[in-house]
Design a protein that fits this description.
heterodimer, A: about 475 residues, mainly alpha, Four Helix Bundle (Hemerythrin (Met), subunit A), about 0% strand, globular, B: about 240 residues, Cytochrome Bc1 Complex, Chain D, domain 2, two-stranded antiparallel ribbon, 4 helices, 4 strands
Chain lengths: ~475, ~240
């Protein structure tokens, strides 16, 4: 099954296996905290969603107003879960593909702990009303700087691990992972400098904010997720990637066009800025086709194997969500559509699908593969994996479809000024309420996932105790 | 062969292109923007917010009202904003014009344009509501006994921006017309008052160079937002 681990020399494999065990401590901290943050994110999401059923719910608690809860949901998901699960995967990828141990497991673990401290402070800050007011970049300066520094620390250790590699040849998956780390350090530094330390004037702030958020989604999360897709799908299906050239072509075109900020058409900026942004997003159709063709040819003829393991299923569904999310973004950027769909649930649907659908599922696929290998122990209960998969998949899909339909209806109805705003709002509420059910499924799914990981960790702990 | 350095340089270049376009470019073009003059009066635009309004903007930021409200009016060809009565600079003959422009946000930090409209756009809400009505709306948006109350609204109430106090020598001039225990009245806290001052000050009505007045000299084609209690501009 593991084409890369059965190296002819034999000894290499052992070095490899030993190398992977160096990930234990960092991965334990990163995965455990990532799952806790994701659970929190989904719980905050559920609270926000419930407020549409009962606007009075928790209204008297200043810490839990709708605005703050929504902001904290985004931050827990992006910084608490996504970046941590992402860095855990990229670190392991560098270790595995480079056949080299983590450069410094202890430093990595310390940096990860600091990182979690920063996220905690940030979340508390936002709940206390200390948000910066920039979307997706709400953490107050004190938390944001700490977060950036600890991220850079983790990134440096990952990059050192990468450059220590024993295996010189590199693969697309490594390129995607490497670029994502570098990219986040850069965009976050830009946002810190230009939004918090020495704020730019007026609407330039909005341009920087949108650029940052779009890059965080489409490049940082997008590339880490694609790294997992390019690594696991060929490997677990047992076939070579159809074309390395095509993967590299997708890599370069995505890096070029995928990073052109998602500036709404009609934003109060000089007209060329939203125009360039729309152009960039529309151009990503090229890499999207390249990725899909490449993986289609890789999988073709082996479809029955897609069902063979949970990691593969997670990754494959993640790929489908990546495709839907990318197409959704492209369609929504075209002015004829955006004039209707901007500022409606349509855009929210895309962001949720991207983070909770594509990214979360690919990272779970990776986690379900990596953790048993690194700790040398099987998942205690495969039924829990199945439950985790179906609840997450079902929840995301339900919310997505509800908000997509609701968003389109909202945009369409708002276009006719005969419909009063409140009447349109009432129509879309039906969709929001269906999506609450999806949010609830997500919460339950994440409880199951966390439970499974906790069971595994306690088994590892018992084993270690017996050994010593 | 080791492609590492090439990959690194390539990635660096793509990043610089993107950064140059969306961060540096806008900064060079409008980062040094100075206040303009209204047309034809020639007054300075925009004017600084008052202390209370600034504090109100902080309350708006802290509670992230922007999660449900945008403050940007798109031009006619890019959305129905003006047709819905959210913009005040409509020029019927002009299909392209831009109705919220950079100048409108010159002194704001942070700029809270927002990206979702669960509620109506607030860029010009000050022309539709005065401070009192905004306060009623914050206290209980769904109370139809209060002016502006909409029973079907999903806007949450913000009770913590108000306090119930014993009526002193006479009822407070700020007291809300709501019934509580006898001998008590509901008044906004300082934060509540400031937020209302900020919201009621939101208006993008000045004609400036980028958005000149229509030939006839008065806005045309305005309609009411149906959620607004009134569409006659408040002073």
């Amino acid at each position: 099954m593991n084409a890369t681990s059965t190296h002819p020399s034999g000894t290499r494999t052992e070095v490899g296996a030993g190398a992977e065990s160096s990930c234990r401590l960092p991965l334990l901290v990163l995965y455990k905290s990532a799952l806790i943050w994701l659970l929190l994110a989904t719980v905050f999401g559920l609270i926000a969603s419930l407020k549409f059923h009962a606007p009075h719910l928790l209204a008297g608690v200043p810490y839990l107003t709708y605005g703050r809860v929504v902001a904290v949901q985004t931050d827990c998901a992006l910084y608490g879960f996504a970046l941590q699960a992402g860095i855990a995967f990229v670190l392991w990828l560098f270790v595995r593909m480079g056949r080299t141990p983590v450069a410094s497991p202890i430093m990595m673990t310390i940096a990860a702990s600091f990182y979690n401290f920063a996220v905690t402070i940030g979340v508390l800050g936002v709940l206390c009303g200390d948000s910066t007011g920039f979307q997706g970049f709400e953490f107050p300066a004190y938390a944001a700087w700490m977060l950036w520094i600890s991220f850079v620390f983790m990134g440096v250790i990952a990059v050192l691990t990468y450059s220590n590699r024993d295996e010189q040849a590199t693969y697309p998956a490594q390129w995607f992972g490497f670029t994502a780390l570098f990219w986040f350090a850069w965009i976050c530094a830009t946002a810190l400098m230009l939004l918090l330390a020495r704020p730019v004037r007026g609407v330039v702030q909005s341009s920087v904010n949108w650029w940052y958020l779009h890059n965080l989604h489409s490049i940082v999360l997008g590339f880490i997720g694609l790294a997992a897709i390019f690594y696991f799908i060929p490997k677990l299906i047992g076939r070579a990637l159809f074309s390395r050239q095509l993967a590299l072509f997708a890599f370069w075109t995505l890096a070029l066009f995928g990073s052109w900020g998602q500036i709404p058409n009609g934003a109060p900026l000089p007209a060329w800025i939203p125009a360039m942004s729309t152009f960039g997003i529309v151009m990503t159709i090229i890499p999207v086709i390249a990725v899909v063709l490449n993986l289609w040819h890789t999988i073709r003829g082996s479809h029955e194997r897609l069902d063979s393991s949970w990691p593969l299923k997670f990754t494959y569904v993640g790929l489908m969500f990546w495709f839907i999310g990318s197409v959704h973004l492209i369609v929504g950027a075209v002015p004829a559509v955006s004039s209707m769909t901007d500022f409606t649930w349509f855009t929210v649907a895309q962001k949720n699908l991207w983070v909770y659908g594509f990214f979360t599922l690919t990272m779970f696929g990776a986690m379900y593969y990596i953790v048993p290998r690194v700790f040398g122990i099987d998942w205690p209960n495969p039924k829990l994996i199945a439950a985790h998969f179906w609840l997450t998949f079902g929840g995301v899909l339900l919310s997505y479809i509800a908000l997509l339909v609701g968003g389109i209806a909202e945009g369409y109805l708002l276009g006719d000024t005969q419909n009063s705003f409140v009447a349109v709002l009432r129509t879309t509420l039906a969709a929001v309420r269906v999506s609450t059910l999806g949010d609830l499924m997500l919460v339950v799914g994440q409880i199951v996932g966390l439970l499974n990981l906790t069971l595994l960790v306690s088994r590892v702990a018992r084993r270690e105790l017996k050994l010593s | 062969m080791n492609f590492g350095p090439f990959v690194f340089i390539g990635v660096f270049c793509t990043m610089v292109i993107s950064w140059w376009t969306f961060v540096f470019g806008p900064q060079v073009q409008i980062g040094g923007m100075q206040p303009g003059a209204t047309v034809p009066a020639g007054d300075v635009y925009p004017v600084y917010r008052t202390g209370a309004q600034k504090r109100g903007a902080e309350v708006y930021r802290a509670n992230n009202c922007a999660a449900c409200h945008t403050q940007q009016v798109r031009p006619n060809n890019l959305g129905p904003d003006i047709a819905r009565g959210w913009g005040m600079r409509q020029v019927a003959s002009d299909t392209r014009g831009r109705y919220s422009v950079g100048e409108d946000y010159l002194y704001d930090y942070p700029v809270m344009l927002g990206t979702q409209r669960v509620g109506p756009d607030l860029a010009n809400v000050g022309t539709r509501m005065d401070e009192k009505v905004v306060l009623y709306h914050l206290y209980d948006p769904r109370n139809k006994d209060l002016p502006g109350g909409i029973p079907a609204s999903v806007m949450p109430p913000y009770p913590f921006l108000f306090k119930t106090q014993k009526i002193g020598r006479g009822p407070s001039p700020d007291a809300l017309p709501v019934k509580v225990e006898a001998g008590y009245e509901v008044v906004p806290t300082d934060d509540g008052q400031a937020l209302a001052a900020y919201v009621a000050s939101l208006r993008q009505t000045a004609y400036i160079f980028e958005v000149p007045p229509p030939p006839s000299g008065k806005p045309m084609g305005m309609r009411s937002t149906n959620s607004a209690p009134t569409n006659t501009p408040a002073k």
